[in-house]
Amino acid sequence: MKTLIVHAHPEPESLNGSLKDLAVTTLEAAGHEVRVSDLYAMNWKAVVDAADYGPSASRPLKVPLDSGRAFEAGTLTPDVLAEQEKLLWADTIVFQFPLWWYSMPAILKGWVDRVFTYRFAYGVGEHSETKYGERFGEGTLAGRRALLSVTVGGPEAHYAERGINGPIDDLLFPIQHGALYYPGIDVLPPFVTYGADRLGEEDYADVAKAWEQRLLTLESTEPIPFRRQNFGDYEIPSLHLKEGLEPAGRSGFALHVRG
Questions:
Q1: Over its length of 259 residues, how does the chain's per-residue pLDDT go in tens digits?
Q2: In this structure, which of 32, 79, 184, 241 has its CB flanked by the most CB atoms within 10 Å?
Q3: Closest to 112 measured CA to CA, from 167, 168, 183
Q4: d(Cα 215, Cα 63) in Å, to the nearest integer?
Q5: Could you give the CA distance from residue 37 to residue 9 in angstroms, rounded to a whole number?
Q6: Long-range contacts for 239-248 (Cβ within 8 Å, ≥24 apart)?
Q7: Between vectors from CA 137 to CA 80 and to CA 139, what angle results, nearest 5°?
């Protein structure tokens, strides 16, 4: 298995840094190939601008179209091209980051914004009256798996169905379904470390053991069964879930998960 780890925390000796290092040693010891994109160590540029697209940039700037032209012309910046190559190389992508303000750190969002360009991660496939592109289960990155390893400050109860922060699955839905499943990546259930700011040595030992187990079962873990766009569950072109497919008692994001 070939695994890309995308790591987003500014402190190498943080909990996130330790979990990233443990992932590298665990996977390599199991015979897997591992590459790491440590975004802070790379001094990753987090903002999209015209410089990303070189001579393909228009005035005024049109990010989707310009990014697609640059991708097709091979004129994207070297840092973006390198990350796209890593994604095409990988079987599995592990994202290691803290949940900050209910989302990923800005540097990681900037990685998605710049690397997931038009004609690479979206805007691919047939667009017609019967098919709205290859996305949500299809696309350039189909056949790959992703896993979010997320640390959160609060206790697990705060992220439960009735918890004040909202269910963790809902908070992660825009990342798991919107950013990863959209270009075709199958997403595994997340590995969430709660109470990260209060984790003692004994607690960390338990987390590390559980993390090692998740890493060693990446290939056998079933992905979240998100509904595929072009396989009969949605009306075209409205992309509304067809009547009668909603499980009893479900609403919101959960409608888009089968079973």
A1: 999 999 999 999 999 999 999 999 999 999 999 999 999 999 999 999 999 999 889 999 999 999 999 999 999 999 999 999 999 999 999 999 999 999 999 999 999 999 999 999 999 998 887 888 999 999 999 999 999 999 999 999 999 999 999 999 999 999 999 999 999 999 999 999 999 988 888 899 999 999 999 999 999 999 999 999 999 999 988 999 999 898 877 889 999 999 8
A2: 184
A3: 183
A4: 36
A5: 11
A6: 239/132
A7: 40
Q: Which residue has the tokens 């290092």?
A: 21
